Task: inverse folding
């Protein structure tokens, strides 16, 4: 399996997001991450409707690392049950995919 993959996850604030981003880059589970500030999440959790202000993070990784990346984000996240979603990309610009090539293959 080759190509790119993305992992999306909201965080309570930028500091929490940066902590997980730093770990993902250090552990070579992501090549890049984008913080999307100012998102408003509207949800149902434990039967209650809620709203919170969060920051979103989009991690860029290799398809081969997707499962490990999703698991690691969930593990390091400050929420009890974070919303972490990952998917393999059908297409990517050659330069983008080349930038992911420096990430190691999973053991």
Result:
């Amino acid at each position: 399996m080759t190509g790119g993959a993305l992992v999306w996850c909201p965080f309570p604030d930028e500091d929490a997001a940066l902590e997980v981003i730093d770990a993902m880059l250090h552990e070579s589970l992501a090549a890049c991450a984008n913080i999307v500030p100012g998102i408003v999440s509207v949800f149902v959790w434990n039967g209650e409707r809620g709203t919170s202000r969060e920051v979103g993070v989009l991690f860029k990784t290799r398809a081969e690392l997707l499962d490990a990346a999703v698991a690691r984000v969930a593990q390091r996240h400050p929420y009890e049950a974070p919303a972490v979603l990952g998917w393999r990309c059908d297409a990517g610009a050659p330069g983008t995919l080349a930038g992911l090539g420096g990430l190691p293959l999973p053991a």
